[in-house]
Design goal:
Layout lengths: L3 E6 L3 H4 E11 L3 H8 L9 E5 L2 E5 L20 E4 L2 H13 L3 E10 L2 E11 L2 H23 L1
Antiparallel strand pairs: 1-6, 2-5, 2-7, 3-4, 4-5, 6-7
Length: about 150
């Protein structure tokens, strides 16, 4: 198995969305962005992916400027192109446009030295779905507590 180093995860994504399927995608990065990622600096909290002109772009992923990058640093919130196979792109575009699903980045990591994003295809949860998830989580917590007491 290839060695992976997780940089960041989008913990909010699984709470706000029902993830139906996930894909692994590469990211098109500029020089100092890679160095900043290797230092473990990135945020997926407000990010999302969207198809545009037959390609998929990742928006609002924050990679802070590299400390020693001076003039070579780029905009920290710029749109970044995701690298996928043509068939995967066509399938994702169909899912987003026809089934009205969202593309949410779940995890950012290095796999064999190459930056990758785990992209989830999901449907947004309603408020009552979130309340149900919280209630289930609390019930599970209570069960675990009861088993520990025995």
């Amino acid at each position: 198995m290839a060695d992976t180093k997780i940089i960041t995860t989008n913990r909010r994504a699984r709470f706000d969305y029902d993830i139906l399927e996930s894909f692994e995608a590469g990211i098109e990065l500029k020089g100092t962005e890679v160095k900043s990622l290797r230092n473990g600096h990135a945020s997926l909290s407000e990010s999302y992916a969207r198809p545009e002109k037959g390609e998929i772009f990742l928006y609002h992923m924050h990679i802070p400027p590299y400390e020693f990058g001076n003039r070579f640093n780029v905009d920290s919130l710029r749109p970044r192109k995701l690298l996928l196979h043509k068939a995967q792109i066509r399938r994702l575009i169909a899912e987003v446009t026809q089934r009205r699903l969202a593309l949410i980045p779940l995890k950012l990591y290095f796999k064999s030295g190459i930056a990758k994003v785990e992209l989830g295809v999901g449907k947004g949860k309603k408020r009552y779905d979130k309340r149900h998830a919280i209630k289930k989580r609390e019930a599970d917590r209570e069960l675990r507590k009861q088993f520990r007491k025995r």
